[in-house]
Amino acid sequence: MVDINFFPPEKDDIVNAAHRIAPYIRRTPVLTCDDINERYNTELFFKCENFQQAGSFKSRGACNNLLQLTPEERQRGVCTHSSGNHAAALARAAKLFGTKAFIVMPQNSEKVKIEAVRNYGGKIFFCEPILEAREAALQQIQQQTGAIEIHPYNNLRTITGQATACKELIEQCDDNLDLIIAPVGGGGLLSGTALSARYFGNNIRVIAGEPEGADDAAQSFYSGKLIPVRQPNTIADGLRTSLGSYTFPIIANYVYDIYPVSEEAIVAAMKRIFDKMKIVVEPSAAVALAVVMENVSKFIGKKTGIILSGGNIEVRRMAEILGG
Fold it and tell me: How far is CA 72 from the centre of its chain?
C-alpha cells in the first residue's frame, strides 16, 4: 500500500461531477460483440468513449474543471500540455464556456489531434517530445498569459470528471461486472475508474492495460514507488506519459493489477474491434482489449467492462497500422 497524503475524490464528488457535466458530454453507449465473446469465452461490455465529445473521455475532466472556475479565472484563460486528446477536450471546453485555451503539444503529435485543437480555437505551441520541454513551455505560457493550468491527469477535478465514465458503465451494466479494464498513461482515467468501481460497484476488480514499451505504471505499481517513463516506444501515443503524485497513490491502493501488452496485441485488438464491431478506436483505446487477448484464461466466464478511451486517429494512420 502507498500512503495517500491528500483527500481523493469521494462518492458525492463523482455524483456531483456527473450532474455538472451532463449537459456538455455524451452518455456514451455500452456495446457487446458476440463474435469477440465467443472467441475468448467471456462477456465483454465496451464503454464507447470513442463516441464522446471531442473523441475521447478527456471531455469529462475538461468540462468538470472549467465549470468550477470562477468568472475571474475563466477570463484569464486555461492552458495545458498534451499529446492530443486532453488538448482537444480542453480547447472544446474553453470554446463552450467563452475563454481561451493555450496548448503545448509535442511536435510529433498526431495530425488529427492537432487539427482538432485548431478547429476548437485553441492556440498551439509546439515543443520537443519530452516531458521537460512540455513543462518548460507551459511555464513560459503561464507567465506570459496568466492562464490557469488544467493538468491532463494529475488534477483532482480531472480525475473526478474521468471517474464519471466508469460510474455510467456500472449503471449501464446494472452493477453486474466482475472486472473493468482501462488503459493507463498518466492515470487520470484509471484512478477515476478505480474510485468509481469502489464507490458504485459490488466487488469489481479494476485492471489496467499498458504498452510494454511504456510500462512505467506497472513498474511503479509493483515497486511501490513512482517510476517515471523513460523513452517510451509505443504506437499508443496517449499512453506515453508518467503517473502523477495524485494518480499513483490512488492506483497503488485501489487497482487490482496492471498488465503490459505487446505492440502486436494492440494492433490485433484495433483490427478485431474494427472488423467485428465496425467502430474505430485509436491504439491507446485498443490496449484494454489487448489485455484480454494476451491473458485469455484470466477472463474466461467473467463479465468484464472495457473502457474504449478514444477514437482520434487519421484514416491514413489507421490503414498504416492495420497493414492496409
Answer: 29
B/e letters for 57-69, b = 16+ CB within 10 Å, e = fewer, are: bbbbbbbbbbbeb
Q: What share of the chain is helix, strand, coil (3-state, %, to 5)?
A: 50, 15, 35
Q: Please name every residue paired with 148 in a beta bridge, in sequence order, or none if there are none.
A: 78
Residue 56 DSSP symbol:
B
- Residues 145-201 have pLDDT tens digits of 999 999 999 999 999 999 999 999 999 999 999 999 999 999 999 999 999 999 999
What is the Cα 110 distance to its own chain's centre?
16
CA distances from 254 to 77, 155, 247, 251 (A): 34, 18, 11, 5
Residues in the chain with pLDDT < 70? Answer: 324
Q: How many CB atoms lie within 10 A of CB 247?
A: 30
pLDDT given at position 229 = 86
